[in-house]
C-alpha cells in the first residue's frame, strides 16, 4: 500500500506579456518553459497534487491571450491547490478575487484556491494531510501575524499539517525598513510544514523542533539584482508519510543569469536611486508617517485622528477600486 503523499511546491511565477525591464530574452516564453518543466516533474515524481504559493500573474488583469497560455499548461496538472499573491490582486484586496484572472482560473476549475480559515483535507489510504493557507491581503505581515501564519488547531486524526502563506517569512531581518516575519516568531505553529512565497530569493528549508519552514524562491527572475543573476530557480519536492516529511529542492533548467538579465539600467540609475532614497529618508524623518504606501498613509492618518473603522475601510475600498481602474488603463 502506497502510504506516501508526493507533492511539489512552486511560487511567484509572475507571468506577464510584457518583458520586465531587466530581461534580455522573451520572458513569457521562458516562464512557459518553467511551468512546463514543473508539469513534467510532477508527472515524473508521481505527485498526487501540486501546491502553489501565489503571484501566478504579475498583474491581476494580464491579457486573455497570456492567461490562456497558462490555462493550457494548468490543465495538465492532475490537481493544483494554491493561493493568491499580492500581484494576483487589485490593491491587495482578497475580497475582490472574482474580478482577477486568478479568480477566473478558480471558477474554470484550473486551480483550487485556498482562503484563510478554511481547511482542505487530503487522504491517501490511511494517511491524512490537512492544508490551510493565507493568501496575500491588505495588512499581511503587519496586522495579525498570529492568525495569518500560525496554525493553532489540527484535527486529531490528521497525520501531517501544511500551511501556505504569501508573506515575507524569513530566517532573520535583513533590512530594518522591510516588514518581515521571522521564523522564530511563528515556530509555535502546529503546522508540520509552513510554505511561503513572496520573498523571491527564498531560503533553504529550516527545521525547528521537527517543524519545517521553506520557500524555494520565485520561479522566474524579474530583477537583475546580483543575487538573482546567480540564483538557481527551482521547486520544492515534498514527500509526506505518517511520521516523516522529506524536502528536496529541485533546480529547473535555466539560462545563465548574465545571458537573460541586463544590469545596465541598474548601473545607470544607481546614482538617481541613491538620491531618491536620501530624499525619501528625509521625508520619513520629517514626518511621523513611516510609510510611502498610499494605503498605509490613509490608515496612519486615520488612526491618528481616531476615525471610525468603517470610514477607513470605505477609503481603502475606494483606493483599491481606483487602482483597479488605473491598471485597466495601464495594462
Ligand atoms: Mn512575488
Automatic annotation (TrEMBL):
Source taxonomy: Bacteria, Bacillati, Bacillota, Clostridia, Peptostreptococcales
InterPro entries in the record: Calcineurin-like_PHP, DNA_Repair-Maintenance_Comp, Metallo-depent_PP-like
Residue ranges of domain Calcineurin-like phosphoesterase in the record: 6-201
SUPFAM superfamilies the record matches: Metallo-dependent phosphatases
Any one GO MF annotation of this record: exonuclease activity
Organism domain of life: Bacteria
Name under which the protein is recorded: DNA repair exonuclease SbcCD nuclease subunit
Keywords: Exonuclease, Hydrolase, Nuclease
UniProt keyword annotation of Repeat present: no
PANTHER family given in the database record: COMPONENT OF ATP-DEPENDENT DSDNA EXONUCLEASE, NUCLEASE SBCCD SUBUNIT D
Pfam families: Metallophos
Amino acid at each position: 500500500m502506497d502510504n506516501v503523499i508526493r507533492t511539489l511546491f512552486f511560487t511567484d511565477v509572475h507571468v506577464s506579456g510584457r518583458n520586465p525591464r531587466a530581461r534580455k530574452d522573451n520572458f513569457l516564453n521562458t516562464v512557459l518553459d518553467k511551468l512546463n518543466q514543473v508539469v513534467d516533474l510532477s508527472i515524473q515524481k508521481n505527485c498526487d497534487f501540486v501546491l502553489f504559493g501565489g503571484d501566478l500573474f504579475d498583474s491581476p488583469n494580464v491579457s486573455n491571450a497570456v492567461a490562456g497560455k497558462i490555462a493550457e499548461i494548468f490543465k495538465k496538472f492532475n490537481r493544483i491547490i494554491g493561493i493568491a499573491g499580492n500581484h494576483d490582486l487589485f490593491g491587495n484586496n482578497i475580497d475582490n478575487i472574482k474580478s482577477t484572472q486568478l479568480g477566473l482560473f478558480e471558477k474554470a476549475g484550473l486551480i483550487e484556491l485556498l482562503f484563510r480559515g478554511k481547511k482542505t483535507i487530503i487522504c491517501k489510504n490511511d494517511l491524512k494531510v490537512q492544508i490551510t493557507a493565507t493568501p496575500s491581503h491588505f495588512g499581511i505581515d503587519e496586522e495579525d501575524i498570529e492568525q495569518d501564519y500560525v496554525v493553532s488547531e489540527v484535527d486529531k486524526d490528521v497525520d501531517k499539517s501544511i500551511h501556505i502563506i504569501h508573506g515575507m517569512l524569513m530566517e532573520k531581518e535583513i533590512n530594518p525598513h522591510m516588514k518581515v516575519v521571522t521564523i522564530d516568531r511563528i515556530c509555535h505553529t502546529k503546522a508540520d510544514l509552513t510554505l511561503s512565497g513572496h520573498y523571491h530569493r527564498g531560503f533553504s528549508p529550516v527545521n525547528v523542533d521537527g517543524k519545517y519552514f521553506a520557500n524555494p524562491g520565485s520561479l522566474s527572475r524579474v530583477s537583475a539584482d546580483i543575487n538573482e543573476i546567480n540564483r538557481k530557480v527551482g521547486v520544492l519536492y515534498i514527500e509526506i508519510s505518517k511520521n516523516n516529511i522529506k524536502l528536496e529542492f529541485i533546480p529547473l533548467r535555466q539560462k545563465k543569469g548574465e545571458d537573460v538579465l541586463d544590469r545596465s539600467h541598474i548601473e545607470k540609475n544607481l546614482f538617481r536611486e541613491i538620491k531618491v532614497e536620501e530624499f525619501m529618508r528625509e521625508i520619513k524623518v520629517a514626518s511621523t508617517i513611516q510609510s510611502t504606501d498610499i494605503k498605509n498613509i490613509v490608515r496612519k492618518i486615520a488612526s491618528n485622528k481616531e476615525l471610525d473603522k468603517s470610514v477607513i475601510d470605505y477609503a481603502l475600498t475606494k483606493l483599491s477600486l481606483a487602482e483597479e481602474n488605473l491598471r485597466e488603463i495601464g495594462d
